[in-house]
Amino acid sequence: NILIYMKKIIFDYDEEADVLYVSFGKPQKAIVEEKGNLAIRKNEKTGEVVGVTILDFLKYAKQKPQKIEIAV
Q1: Based on CB atoms within 10 Å of each CB, which residue in 18, 23, 43, 55 is the most buried?
Q2: Are 70 and 41 within 8 A, CB to CB?
Q3: What radius of gyration, in Å, describes the C-alpha atoms of the chain?
Q4: How far is CA 52 from CA 1, 7, 21, 38, 68, in A?
Q5: How far is CA 24 from its chain centroid?
Q6: Which residues contact 38 (CB under 8 A, 6 or more apart)?
Q7: How many other CB atoms sit within 10 Å of the CB of residue 21?
Q8: CA 23/CA 21 separation, integer angstroms
Q9: 19 DSSP β-pair partners
């Protein structure tokens, strides 16, 4: 069995820069791993993914969906 605990998800879109910021729970200080147009934010102590930043969001949102794997 897999237990999933859902936190509040916060979306913030910067239309001028075409960047979507997604935070899982309250935004917090984190380390960042870049993967193409994604910046994955992880808690410095636990390594838990606390957010994702998507660059050129509309460009990628209009494409065919792709599978994205994030190692946690």
Answers
A1: 23
A2: no
A3: 13
A4: 26, 14, 6, 7, 12
A5: 8
A6: 52, 53, 54, 55, 68
A7: 17
A8: 7
A9: 14, 55
Q: Which two structure tokens, joined as six digits, stand for 11?
A: 């979306």
Question: What pLDDT tens digit does each residue of the chain (72 aa) get?
Answer: 555 566 788 899 999 999 999 999 887 889 999 988 999 999 999 998 999 999 999 887 777 666 666 655
Using the 8-state DSSP alphabet, how is residue 57 labeled? H
pLDDT value of residue 2: 56
Give me the amino acid identity at 52: V
pTM of the full structure? 0.72
For the record, the structure tokens of 53 come out as: 């930043």
